[in-house]
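User: I'm putting together notes for a lab meeting next week and I want to include a structural view of one of the chains we've been expressing. I don't have a solved structure, so I'd like a prediction I can at least talk through. The sequence is below, exactly as it appears in our construct file.
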Amino acid sequence: MKLKQFFIRWWPVLVWCGLIFIVSAMPINKSQEFSWLDFIFKKTAHVTEYAILFWLVFRAASDRGRLYSKKIFVWSFVFSVLYAFSDEWHQTFVPGREGTLRDVGFDTLGILFSWIQVKRWV
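Assistant: Thanks for the context. Below is the predicted structure for the 122-residue chain, given as structure tokens.
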């Protein structure tokens, strides 16, 4: 594969990972009062952002859907979950944030939703 083709396929993944990193690096002021609306919004964002990440990784690894194998699905899953863990770890260094396994669970839920949807398409 030529370098230009490789870059074109993987550029969206790099940009998306960068956006996740930037948003996770933003300090937040924790409010004392629990809000279901805030909780639902944040967890929906987790599910959505990692569903998109899985799809982008699968798209790049499968050469935009031209290659299809279980190995590509598994590799895309592993990459996305490892990135979720690394993102939560990264958040432990950001003021007002914490890294939680619960959030990795929501991320993984988004990854699995995306896996199911992509499998329907191919």
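A couple of points you could mention at the meeting. Residues 37-43+61-122 form one domain. Residues 29 and 96 are 6 Å apart (CA to CA).

User: Perfect, that's what I needed.
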